[in-house]
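User: Fold this, then the next.

Assistant: Folding the first:
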Amino acid sequence: MRLGPTADPEPAPHQLLVEVRHISLNRGEVAFAGRRPAGTVHGYDAAGVVVRAAADGTGPAEGTRVAAFGEGAWAERMAVDVTAVAEVPAEVDLADAAALPMAGVTALRTLRTRDILGRRVLITGAAGGVGRYAVQLAALGGAHVIASVGSARRGEGLAELGAHEVVVGLEGIDRPVDLILDNVGGPQLAAAWQLLAAGGSVQNIGWASDEPAVFEPYSLFFVGPAKTMSTFGDVREVGPDLATLLGFAAAGRLSSEIGWRGPWERYGEAARALLERRVAGKAVLDVVPPA
């Protein structure tokens, strides 16, 4: 990745033009950046101010502060669908809003795949961006939240966010769980499957282990209500869900958990910190220096 000039985006009639103030990096975007064509404007998460409303008359007006999700977010200006933005309440800082789209919507939508009130929810990779949002949202939804991390140090602060149990790996989990949000993959995913209760489900979100998951013969066979394993990648029309998250943030019920912040000229430092798992939560870069 590098900083460099690019042409101004040309919004379609159903898109608005945003002057970007802050961007957020996700580990997957950084890890796979080299697979994109040269000259690609990377990134999906941003927050800023609308400088041109959508030509079709829909969406926020010029001058509105928004959080946005869409391709080409890591730039001074981005064109984005009106269905992929939400107005940022006055109580929420734009930097906090920029940390929400990808990770926050992922956590929210995967938790909504089943009723979690009174259920046992296991979140692996809980120290990361998605994980920290998932811990908070699952607690808000009335779940018994089990946060799994790679080390005791990575688990710091998760109890304060709402985790009822914080475990290293899967150690100490002695009862079945109803929903697993898996950010790790690999051997731990195969082991976590054995903890799943009848009728439970696994949502595959990430694969931080970079290792294959091997399921022993017949380990997927089960007599009783079906257990399921699903991929997640539904990021269509995220505006309403983004508004929900911003509402929680404005009410003080959801923390953006920014673990690294600096000017966007330091993108290399932020990227390395993410790849080396030295960021607890989200990494945010300031495109426009804070006042």
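Now the next one, as you asked:
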Amino acid sequence: MKIAIQGIPGSFHHQVAINCFGTEVEIVGYRIFEEVAKCVAQGTCDYGVLAIENSIAGAILPNYELIDRYNLTIKDEYYLPISHNLMCLKGQKIEDLAEVRSHPMALLQCKKFFENYPQIKLVDDVDTASVAKRIREEKIKGIGAIASMTAAQIYSLEVLASDIQTVKNNFTRFIILQKPTLDLGLVKPNKASIKVTVNNEKGILAKLLSHMSGSGLDLSKIQSIPVIEKPWEYSFFIDTEFEDYDAFKTAIAEINSSFGSVKIFGEYQNRK
């Protein structure tokens, strides 16, 4: 079994892949999220791990678009508690650092910590663990990385400060992607991710939300995106939770007939 992730060993995606699939699978790292989606769609990998939202920084909207464009299905979700740690080559202190590099979201989540160190320049990079790896391989002094404890262990870096994220109760939601399948598993789903493209009518969104609520569907997320080929019209990415799977299916059929069109990205178990 092959699992696609964005990043390298020590990244949060790598950690989720191990937690979900174990250590016996082959984990294949890719540079960007689109390469993960593409390899799953082409069948090069069996599953893909994709970050979709963070409890501090919010949703990663381009990743919703990747699910849609590559016609992928959400098999499952996983909530990972995020611990950001400042690390560098051994033998240095935080006062020795002129620059800290990491993924933009990691830098955003740790911004307050660095207010006490104005001499440190924060620089966006591709991935948390890749910076740690580069520092180790190139023996770079004066530059730190923000990454996981696992990355510090893998690349033998010294942790100068742990849990430096502003909000300690910090989670990232990951989704497990696969090619479309009719298999729902042994347990009926109680959560779904859908895309609704509504009819261009006055008050249609309010009517849609009222209908979903009346059908027993609890909206845990809604994000709007423009319909590219139709200026000023919008689609909505929606995560909804429910207790009655049959009621959910009935509600979806009614949305298709009365409110617009629905594309189901995935039906799965709520892991929150």
